[in-house]
Design goal:
The protein is an alpha+beta fold and 396 residues long. It is built from twelve helices and 21 strands. The strands form five sheets. Strands 1, 4, 5, 6, 7, 9, 10, 11, 12 and 13 form a ten-stranded mixed β-sheet that branches. It has a five-stranded antiparallel β-sheet with strand order 17-16-19-15-18, sandwiched between helices. It has a two-stranded antiparallel ribbon with strand order 2-3. The longest helix is centred in the last third of the chain and has 19 residues.
Length: 396
């Protein structure tokens, strides 16, 4: 089975690229001002903002929004907004405060992917998938004619052999990103078949090729939609249908500009001091040599002992928070930036700054233990996430 596929990539033509590209839909989910400012900036220009569903709006007239997104997608296809790039991958160089992160836009065969815990497929999830988070994404995708990826796959290449093999062609785009996202350059890869071979050479004994770094639930939704579609297809259609293949960006886990950032916990509740006291009692104050988390409430912070096993500490915290919300009410959220979490907890609620995961042991951890807890880590701060630029058809 060929897990990596050279896709036909859709790129915009004759648009303002700084307004076309927008941040991943699962970012700034507690910051409505971010998305309002972005909308004002984009105005009526062609933009991926018009063909994605920012998750901050998931509870705001979702069916109406999805219908509008699909209508906009078809209008972009019919109106000549897209041009088709065939025959190669795209080398993406993204400049952020962390440095220049280099990835490769390619397609993967969803038959090679599973989000089940402990799966031994070539492409594996890295975190526990929350079942109730998949149906809304399936609803968004199932009638969409195109997909836009914010999925970032990780590969394990300590020697950097994949990127060393790349032969650069034409520069496809090069521009500044909006909302303090840095800048990005995309270059056509002339020797994509050779690059594919370099990827496959990284597989270990059990065939582990890619780990899903960002966009786990989006890729899970793509897989679910594909499984739902399969029974209606002929044997020939099963081999070539565009919904079988998902567009992603692959990044070396050892990329120096790829920062593994913890995803922090925030609980908006009226009795926040009760929750803060409970978390402090659950973990205890920090001791020397332990992984330290910080408990934030009422503008104050306290170091707590998270233990040496960070994933287990996250499981313990999430379980306690779920029980607390069930009894006392409140709403939990996942915050990517330390600054944003501190701002939120100054007004109301409780936050926990989670310790980071060591990316050098990342692949071994997934190979040995399977999925990490949901929202254990993030690759960079919110404004460093993948911006939507490329697209791919997923209908015939």
């Amino acid at each position: 089975m060929d897990s990596i596929v050279i896709p036909q990539i859709l790129l915009p033509r004759s648009v303002d690229m700084s307004k076309w590209a927008v941040n991943a839909c699962d970012q700034f989910t507690s910051d409505l001002s971010y998305w309002r400012e972005l909308k004002n900036y984009v105005s009526d220009c062609p933009s991926t903002l018009n063909i994605i569903f920012p998750e901050i709006y998931l509870k705001d007239r979702p069916e109406e929004r999805i219908a509008k997104i699909n209508k906009n997608m078809r209008a972009y296809l019919d109106g000549g907004i897209f041009k088709t790039l065939s025959g190669g991958f795209i080398l993406v160089e993204r400049t952020t405060p962390s440095g220049v992160r280099t990835g490769i836009v390619l397609a993967v065969d969803l038959e090679s992917y599973s989000f089940s815990d402990g799966a031994k497929t070539p492409i594996r999830s890295t975190e526990a998938t929350i079942p109730e988070r998949i149906p809304p994404r399936v609803q968004i995708r199932k009638n969409a004619p195109v997909e836009l990826p914010h999925v970032m796959l990780l590969y394990n290449d300590s020697e950097g052999n994949v990127l060393k093999s790349v032969e650069r062609g034409k520069v496809l785009y090069d521009f500044e990103l909006n909302m303090n996202g840095g800048s990005v350059r995309g270059t056509f890869i002339e020797n994509s078949e050779e690059v594919k071979s370099k990827f496959y050479s990284l597989c270990g004994n059990d065939g582990f090729l890619f780990a899903v770094g960002d966009g786990n639930h989006s890729l899970a939704a793509a897989k679910t939609c594909w499984e739902q579609l399969k029974p209606s297809l002929t044997q020939e259609q099963l081999k070539t249908h565009p919904a079988r293949f998902a567009l992603c960006e692959a990044v070396n886990v050892f990329d120096k500009a790829l920062k593994f950032e913890p995803i922090h916990r925030y609980v908006n509740c009226s009795c926040y001091q009760r929750l803060a006291d409970g978390i402090e009692k659950l973990f205890g104050t920090a001791n020397d040599g332990a992984a330290v988390a910080k408990l934030l409430a009422g503008g104050k912070e306290m170091a707590i002992n998270f233990g040496s096993d960070v994933p287990e500490g996250i499981r313990k915290l999430d379980k306690y928070v779920s029980r607390f919300i069930e009894e006392y009410g409140g709403e939990a959220d996942y915050i990517h930036g330390e600054k944003q979490l501190k701002q939120l907890t100054e007004k109301q609620g409780v936050g926990v700054l989670i310790p980071p995961i060591d990316k050098n042991a990342f692949f071994a951890l997934i190979e040995k233990s399977g999925n990490l807890p949901h929202k254990t880590f993030s690759m960079g701060e919110g404004n460093e996430k993948r911006y939507y630029i490329e697209a791919k058809k997923i209908t015939v």
